[in-house]
Design goal:
2 domains; four-stranded mixed sheet; alpha+beta; single chain; 296 residues; 4 strands; disordered N terminus
């Protein structure tokens, strides 16, 4: 076999080995513990990075440029023995067509992230049963990211991923950890997936698709029409808000898109914004500072 043939075989195997779904950055911030330089925190950071990036979560073969950029920031508030009490901040983005801009598709602050971990222990996710809260919480958010990404390209295209996230929730409810059942706070993993899959909130998912595919992805071709489509998509959420005001899934939507909406309508071609501003202040009144940035 020639060296050139060997090279191409190696390249083929390498692409298939590493072309998974995520390009994740994991940061473990342990300043609150007063012992942030302990090796266990760096070990956790490195292991989770490998766990996320080197696992095939969908079984699909993807090119490296198709991987979803995401960030996991674990803020450790307490650490004793192998017990960790943390907050988890997760964000993810996807590229906008014909541009270098990346738009946020997921932004979630998980305040109920407690787990046990020993350096170099195997981090195992089992789709058929609960193995550990560390793996289950991270994997739940990974499938939520996959679902939101798919929804942004195809109307309600994320169903299969959201159902996997719901299955993780089902297996985790008897674990004793918080965030998994209906008795958890109204801002929990349970509340998020329960509302997202409810017919009551289906408009949110359709609006998410319209916002991205009919709006952002056409911005370089026709920015004025794109802005009108985004405005229409956002205002369509009023029907959901009128039925279920101040719902958690609506708050998550504006955590994801709020700053971007303010930026879009503060620049570029001018479009009517009066009805949009009324809708934004009605649906997300706590973001009034954001909406005041809209100048036109």
């Amino acid at each position: 076999m020639t060296n050139l043939n060997q090279f191409f075989i190696f390249l083929f195997l390498s692409v298939n080995l590493f072309a998974q779904e995520f390009n994740a950055t994991v940061t473990v911030n342990a300043i609150k513990t007063g012992n942030e330089n302990l090796p266990i925190f760096k070990n956790l950071e490195n292991q989770l990075t490998g766990f996320i990036n080197n696992t095939s979560w969908t079984g699909q073969e993807l090119n490296s440029n198709q991987r979803i950029n995401c960030n996991f920031v674990i803020i450790v508030s307490e650490y004793k023995g192998d017990s960790f009490k943390c907050d988890l901040q997760v964000s993810a983005s996807r590229p906008v067509f014909d541009s270098s801009y990346e738009t946020t598709i997921y932004n979630y602050n998980d305040r109920d992230f407690n787990f046990n971990y020993i350096s170099f222990q195997n981090i195992v996710f089992n789709p058929s049963q609960f193995e550990s809260n560390l793996a289950s919480v991270l994997t739940f958010h990974l499938y939520m990211i996959l679902g939101m990404d798919a929804d942004s390209f195809t109307n309600t295209g994320g169903d299969k991923h959201f159902l996997k996230a719901q299955k993780i929730l089902d297996f985790s409810q008897s674990s004793g950890y918080g965030g998994w059942d209906s008795s958890s706070s109204q801002q929990s993993r349970f509340a998020f997936i329960d509302q997202l899959l409810s017919p009551t909130f289906k408009t949110i998912r359709s609006s998410f698709y319209d916002y991205h595919r009919l709006g952002l992805d056409t911005m370089t071709k026709d920015p004025e029409q794109s802005k009108l489509q985004i405005s229409k998509a956002v205002q369509s959420l009023l029907t959901v808000n009128n039925r279920r005001p101040n719902s958690f899934v609506m708050r998550v939507f504006f955590d994801i898109k709020g700053d971007e909406i303010a930026d879009i309508f503060s620049d570029g071609p001018q479009v009517p914004i009066d009805d949009l501003l009324v809708a934004l202040n009605q649906m997300a009144p706590t973001s009034s500072e954001r909406w005041r940035r809209i100048k036109f």
